[in-house]
Design goal:
heterodimer; A: mainly alpha; 78% helix; elongated; B: mainly alpha; 4-stranded mixed sheet; 5% strand; disordered C terminus
């Protein structure tokens, strides 16, 4: 009888252990998937930018420098070989796009141009998607790390070699509010 | 509870409302259990001439009836609601509707879910709702009037609220609650029939004649049970509405988490509240799915305990105050961030 009870306890413990372990694996996969999602959105953004720049190039005569900076940042992001390099270039690209979208407001001709408006919406949406993909990555990392640090996940995480994932920090360049000169209007 | 604390983070508010829902559903289960088991206890013995409960026949019958009632709405509900509101899939060649589709995709990414289908209801009153039994079968619908009135940031708040309903599995929660509601209504109906036939009365009488403290207790229980049986339809209606409101508060807090911009939704709610007309195309039965009560301003704006108890949605003023409290806790997003999200 006692043996049976002991056996039952052992089986229950094993089931519980498997559940905990699988939970952590699931979270780790979610973290990896969320990371891949950011890449998908960055790629979509890189594809959209040449379209936007070509459409507004002719009209935005006073912003050639901004346009060039956007194109250069895009080229550097696509050709980057290290993660740090890529991160810096993508951050600069974000900043450039933010500025570009803001100054587009100063050109009434663009407001009546259906194509430009459409592109503006697409770029805004893609820029948001990049931001939300990063946000979701951080949300999942927080869940994963919390599961590893709280009891009893911490025992399982340490015995099976789970490592906490790193949060994506907001790059310095992104924290600076883009200065938009509105004196033109 | 949440009312006292106007400055809570969206995590705290979500936890508080999840607890509220669980508590309300427990109360609901106790109500159904008391009603059903009481019926079985007082009436089963009449039929079988045996004291006590052998099989909780009527409890089971009530629960199965309620579950059937809810299952029908669970599987057919989404298509039915969309059809009854004349919702059409959002058109990609229309700038406003294309923007709506984009915002839905953004919120799906923030929630880490597959993007729901986007629908537009041809109604000039601003409103929005979400349907679908799980995130894989979800649809989000907004009225044309909502798209025309809100800016991008506000639309994001509203879509974030609807996406939160999808992520929090609110359709499932409300289906469970509907099943319990159906069970109480059925059981209370049985009880009233049973009482008018006088069955329980005889039973009560017999217990009294058997004498002793136990008999008195049974009589007391019987009176209490009768009272509950009579009040059950209204009690369960109030419970359904209370669960609905807890899911609304939860969806607001989750929208703040998804957008990280509670002020967008706060501003959208103000605009929606300012629009007076009721949303004619959305029927009363789907009210709990909407961003605000579609039956018009009166229901959302009336304050006071009595009005609160009978509302599917919390008062808009309190929702806005809570959202603004969340914005205060967030410390305000950097301005550069806001222009991008706008």
């Amino acid at each position: 009888m006692i043996l049976l009870i002991l056996l039952g306890v052992v089986v229950l413990f094993a089931v519980w252990l498997v559940g905990q372990f699988n939970g952590l694996v699931q979270l780790r996969n979610q973290v990896q998937n969320a990371w891949a999602q950011i890449d998908v959105q960055l790629k979509r953004r890189a594809d959209l930018i040449p379209n936007l720049v070509n459409t507004v190039k002719g009209v935005m005569k006073f912003e050639q420098e901004t346009l060039e900076r956007v194109m250069n940042a895009r080229a550097r992001a696509m050709g980057a070989t290290t993660i740090t390099e890529r991160g810096a270039a993508e951050a600069e690209l974000s900043q450039g796009i933010g500025r570009l979208l803001a100054v587009m407001e100063n050109y009434p001709e663009l407001k009546s141009n259906q194509n430009a408006l459409q592109l503006q919406e697409e770029v805004t949406a893609t820029e948001n998607k990049v931001g939300f993909a990063r946000q979701f990555y951080n949300d999942v990392v927080m869940k994963f790390n919390t599961a590893q640090q709280t009891f009893p996940g911490n025992l399982i995480a340490s015995s099976f070699g789970f490592k906490p994932s790193e949060f994506l920090q907001v790059p310095e360049a992104d924290r600076v509010v883009p200065k938009v000169d509105l004196s033109l209007t | 509870m949440i009312q006292g604390n106007q400055r809570a983070t969206f995590y705290e508010l979500q936890d508080a409302n999840r607890r509220n829902t669980v508590l309300l559903i427990l109360v609901f289960l106790v109500l159904v259990g008391f009603l059903g088991l009481g019926f079985d206890f007082f009436f089963w013995s009449e039929l079988t001439e045996e004291p006590g409960i052998r099989v909780p026949f009527f409890t089971g019958f009530g629960l199965i009836g309620g579950a059937f009632y809810a299952t029908v709405s669970y599987f057919g509900g989404a298509r039915e609601v969309l059809a009854s509101t004349y919702a059409k899939p959002a058109r990609l060649d229309d700038p406003l509707e294309k923007q709506f589709v984009n915002v839905v995709e953004e919120m799906a990414i923030a929630a880490g879910l597959p993007p729901p289908k986007s629908y537009v209801v041809p109604d000039s009153d601003p409103n929005a709702f979400a349907v679908g039994r799980d995130p894989e079968h979800a649809s989000i619908a907004v009225t044309r009037g909502l798209l025309e009135r809100l800016d991008r940031e506000e639309l994001q708040g509203v879509v974030g609220h609807e996406m939160a309903h999808v992520r929090n599995l609110d359709i499932r929660t409300m289906t469970l609650v509907t099943a319990l509601f159906g069970a109480t209504v059925l059981l209370s109906d049985f009880a009233r029939r049973g009482l008018s036939m006088g069955g329980g009365g005889r039973r009560g009488g017999r217990s009294r004649s058997s004498g002793g403290g136990g008999g008195g207790l049974v009589l007391l229980l019987f009176v209490l049970w009768m009272l509950v049986a009579v009040l059950a339809p209204i009690l369960s209606r109030l419970l359904v509405l209370a669960v609905s409101r807890s899911r609304e508060y939860l969806a607001d807090a989750s929208a703040a988490e998804l957008t990280r911009n509670p002020l967008g939704l706060a501003s959208a709610l103000r605009k929606i509240a300012a629009a007076h007309e009721p949303t004619e195309l959305i029927s009363q039965g789907s009210a709990h799915l909407c961003i605000t009560d579609p039956r018009g301003l009166g229901v959302n704006e009336r304050e006071g305990a009595a009005a609160d108890l009978f509302a599917t949605h919390p008062p808009i003023g309190r929702r806005v105050a809570l959202l603004e409290g969340m914005a205060g806790v967030l410390g305000g997003a950097p301005a550069g961030d806001l222009t991008l999200r706008a």
